[in-house]
Amino acid sequence: MGWKQRLPFLRWSMVRMAVAMPGFLKTGQIGDGREEATARYVEANARRNDVDHVLDTIDEFAREKSMLMNVGDEKGALLDAAVRRADATLALELGTYCGYGAMRIARAAPDAKVFSVEFAAANAAIARRIWAHAGLADRITCVVGTLGDGGTTMDALAKSGFAAGTLDLLFIDHDKSAYLADLLGILERGWLHTGSIVVADNVRVPGAPKYRAYMREQQGKLFDTVEHATHVEYQTLLSDLVLESDYLGP
Ligand SMILES: C[S@@+](CC[C@H](N)C(=O)[O-])C[C@H]1O[C@@H](n2cnc3c(N)ncnc32)[C@H](O)[C@@H]1O
């Protein structure tokens, strides 16, 4: 294991990321062009129509060039297993960024249609370039918006086929303070069915305490949750939590 994985705090791209956090919350980008650079790096280095190689190339970029806020390979393996267990044909991700998480979902569920909601149009454009390179453009759709916009984005999803009991897998990985409200919005629409799986990233870092408290309170009632102890993406010093929750039905 190299020093970049053991001592992530010494990486300039990690320091730059920490300093950029307030801007990131507004724009969805770090501010130094690393997201656009990711798309260029993939187009230049990853084999076309080879999802495994595109994902590996993004992991390599995040490790060797600039740290990225993807779910990453370690937590991504937890996501993959949940997607397979859900046997998903319809999946929804909240928070697209560069399109990495949605590609992992599409790879683990080869028959699924994957939708990903992203508020930053610039990120949506980058993700679409990467999905096209991976040969997944026809299976993953990015909807630019947020679930908290008063119904516009949820209505757009409804027009694309989201209806009562249709959503098999939900991956929540966007604004940590919106995790619970957006899950409740989805429950209100009745899109989950008994056996649907909800995966939430970053529950410890940066942290989604209200979401975690809700899942603890709902244990054995609406949801059955496993808390996976893991690490923040692309390093091994900082711990994180991924929550995997089975919906027990209305
Ligand atoms: C941690 S990144 C997502 C990483 C992605 N899931 C992956 O694994 O590759 C968070 C993303 O959520 C977006 N975002 C933040 N708040 C949002 C919201 N309320 N609705 C939709 N997207 C949001 C940000 O712009 C950013 O691109």
From TrEMBL:
PROSITE patterns, from UniProt?
A: SAM_OMT_I
**Which BP terms from GO are recorded?**
methylation
One matching Pfam family: Methyltransf_3
Record keywords: Methyltransferase, S-adenosyl-L-methionine, Transferase
Has keyword Methyltransferase?
Answer: yes
Q: Does the keyword Transmembrane helix apply?
A: no
What InterPro entries would the database entry show?
Answer: SAM-dependent_MTases_sf, SAM_O-MeTrfase
**Protein name in the entry:** O-methyltransferase
